[in-house]
């Protein structure tokens, strides 16, 4: 089977890139490994988030900001094309601090992000009184927090569904259960051996989440991507009480309340541990004590593809000249820019200049 | 509408209220079964359209039998045994967690 471009990966990153590449007029073939894959795209929290990204990397902060700015139009275009409502909202977002020490540390981080962005990153540090004007029911320990009008949230499952449906509606092809066992490059063509037969294309995108490392290695690129587990709990649907998302808590369009934000290095184990879940709930209760009366109906773990510095890896393997690698852990926030600027650059045969500092070579210091 | 198939002679009687009305039940009965036996068929209103609903599968799967029990919303009536003195009321729409 042949195509102009093969995208390995049918998750949040692969789907956004494949959708964008198809939009660039390329005959696109998406390969999805199937439900044996770790499926980070099914476990997201759903923040479209700017205020915690790229404290030490202005380029990544700017890339994130640009994607968040693209999100409103991106969301309405996806809905127009597919009929799927992504529930994207951009009321701004809050990071709540539970002590003066936390508040001071947060203020320093926000100020650095602002200064490194040439003023593009907008935020406010809010005291308790100002915070009370944004949401009701904060606990007694809450001292204040940071607010950025650039933040928002969306339903990540509807996002994935819309990307897949939009891709299909534009004539993109997808093959399921197509585990890739071998990639070779010869005379300008990448040849893939897969569980669903051999495939060829002059252009190749590896966006396979935790499957990326061995695939990129086949083309001579070392990508140090490892699993970082996050656990999330969700309550029953409740009457709306929270108008804007917090770093750790958000109320979905359906009314359920998500609580999360844990980080564990536990290998390829996507289960849950009650100690971690209890820690998440304990912090959520300190923020909103009234959540005590909400019933938790489900919890899950998911594995983020994580690089040593937590930043994306966008790179081009040395083998051949048409292959690209994209691995990020913020696939929701970056979906809008992956579907547009990133796909456009790949169609042109280049990496966007803005993200040239995010190549894997930064980890290979000799 | 519903009749019991077990004999009630050696049973201990319990009493609880549903929307303020006193209802008698036997030890071992679920809230949903006791409500059906008392003729209370519609025990909740759906969150979106407000339509009346009542116990259906009686085995913990369909979530049609949701009621509020002692102030806690969205309890599955078919999964909770009647306790003496319980306060049960209709589940009207979504749960309200109020600040």
Present the secondary structure layout.
The complex is a heterodimer of chains A (366) and B (99).
Chain A: E1 5-8, H1 12-23, E2 28-32, E3 47-48, H2 58-82, E4 93-97, H3 100-116, E5 124-127, H4 128-132, E6 144-148, E7 152-153, H5 156-169, E8 173-176, E9 180-186, E10 189-194, E11 197-201, E12 203-206, H6 212-217, E13 226-235, E14 249-251, E15 257-259, H7 274-287, E16 296-306, E17 313-315, E18 323-327, H8 335-347
Parallel strand pairs in A: 1-2, 1-12, 2-8, 12-18
Antiparallel strand pairs in A: 3-7, 4-6, 5-6, 9-10, 10-11, 13-15, 13-16, 14-15, 17-18
Helix pairs in contact in A: 1-5, 1-8, 2-5, 2-8
Chain B: E1 13-18, E2 21-26, H1 31-37, E3 44-45, E4 52-53, E5 66-69, E6 72-76, E7 87-92
Parallel strand pairs in B: 1-7, 3-7
Antiparallel strand pairs in B: 1-2, 3-4, 5-6, 5-7
Could you explain how this protein is built, in words?
- The complex is a heterodimer of chains A (366) and B (99).
- Chain A has 366 residues and is α+β, with helices and mostly antiparallel strands.
- Chain A has 3 domains: 199 residues, FAD/NAD(P)-binding domain (3-Layer(bba) Sandwich), CATH 3.50.50.60; 57 residues, no CATH class; 81 residues, D-Amino Acid Oxidase, subunit A, domain 2 (D-Amino Acid Oxidase, Chain A, domain 2), CATH 3.30.9.
- Helix content of chain A is 29%, strand content 24%.
- In chain A, a hairpin with a 7-residue loop joins strand 17 and strand 18.
- The longest helix of chain A has 25 residues.
- Chain A is globular and about 65 Å long.
- Chain B is globular, with a radius of gyration of 13 Å.
- The model of chain B has no long low-confidence stretch (mean pLDDT 91).
- At the A-B interface, loops of A face strand 6 of B.
